[in-house]
Amino acid sequence: MIRDATPEDWPAIWPFFHRIVRAGETFTYPVDLAADTARDWWLLTAPNRTVVAVDEDGTVLGTAKMNNNQWGNGAHIASASFMVDPDRTGRGTGRALCEHALQWARQQGFHAMQFNAVVATNAPAVHLYESLGFRVLGTVPEGFRHPVHGPVGLHIMHRPL
Amino acid sequence: MIRDATPEDWPAIWPFFHRIVRAGETFTYPVDLAADTARDWWLLTAPNRTVVAVDEDGTVLGTAKMNNNQWGNGAHIASASFMVDPDRTGRGTGRALCEHALQWARQQGFHAMQFNAVVATNAPAVHLYESLGFRVLGTVPEGFRHPVHGPVGLHIMHRPL
Predict the structure, then answer these.
(1) Averaged pLDDT score across all residues of chain A
(2) Are B117 and A70 in contact (CB < 8 Å)?
(3) Residue B70: predicted pLDDT
(4) Could you tell me the CATH superfamily of domain A2-160?
(5) Residue A109 carries which DSSP code?
(6) Domain range annotation of chain A
(7) B94-121 pLDDT tens trace
(8) Closest CB to B143 among A77, A138, A145
(9) Measured between beta carbons, which residues in chain B are less than 8 angstroms from residue A71?
């Protein structure tokens, strides 16, 4: 089940959010991002949106934020970011969140969705996005310093809506 | 001459900044961007930087801001934005500002510079950047709704340093 995130969800989001960001393998966020800053970055307000995916017991499995990628005459293209609790993967949460974001963007009247910084070695994310109709518009060479793999590409991915 | 911008420069920047943004042909900023918000967006502080180009009389001809394009493990790539007073073009101000930004980024230890949203119909900018070694990594199809030309591409441009 996917529902709007509230500030009360933050204590359930932050542990896995922190773990993912601190690992520094998939997000271009500061690896030492503080909880308060992270909450301000992640919990968006209308017309943008942040959701959580929860299981039958109400446990938060993952979260997504969705927003305009640019402003002004570029504001008709959406963007989104996704995090799934690494201890609760394999249940289709990432796909459900991404499908939800695409539906939201369509309903909001966006013309396309764009991701600005998909780490090329993040194969599960790249494959998920491709399976949902995204394609790589371009790749920033060595745009990401992966803590294990070293300098790797950062994909810009896009799909029309 | 290019020097650091100060808050005291804002009254000289805002008239042409406003004119450029309101025209909506080259920036993905809200066309009705308020002066206070614009000042906060444009006048960056260290380690990022904002400069003005001035002539012999101290008249502001243009301005540039330069900053990291991402954070964390993507923070080694810089970005920059440039505005030249439309009434004072043709004096090489844009080129001087761009060369200055490249030099700054090199000195700061950035590995590359990336522009995220270069309007494809902004030929002077695209040609300037290409002449300075940038290439188009990819183009967001119809990523910009040009008020005259309609939907046009938004280039992501990049050059190693």
Answers:
(1) 98
(2) yes
(3) 98
(4) Gcn5-related N-acetyltransferase (GNAT) (3.40.630.30)
(5) T
(6) 2-160
(7) 999 999 999 999 999 999 999 999 999 9
(8) A77
(9) 28-30
Instruction: Say what the ipTM of the complex is.
Output: 0.94
SS in 3 state form for chain B?
CEEECCHHHHHHHHHHHHHHHHHCCCCCCCCCCCHHHHHHHHCCCCCCEEEEEECCCCCEEEEEEEEECCCHHHCCEEEEEEEECHHHCCCCHHHHHHHHHHHHHHHCCCCEEEEEEEECCCHHHHHHHHHCCCEEEEEEEEEEEECCCEEEEEEEEEEEC
Task: Tell me the per-residue pLDDT of B63-100, one tens digit each, with 9 for 90 and over.
Answer: 999 999 999 999 999 999 999 999 999 899 999 999 99
Task: Nearest chain A residue to B74 by CA: give it.
Answer: A144
Q: For A67, phi and psi rounded to 5 degrees? A: -165, 170
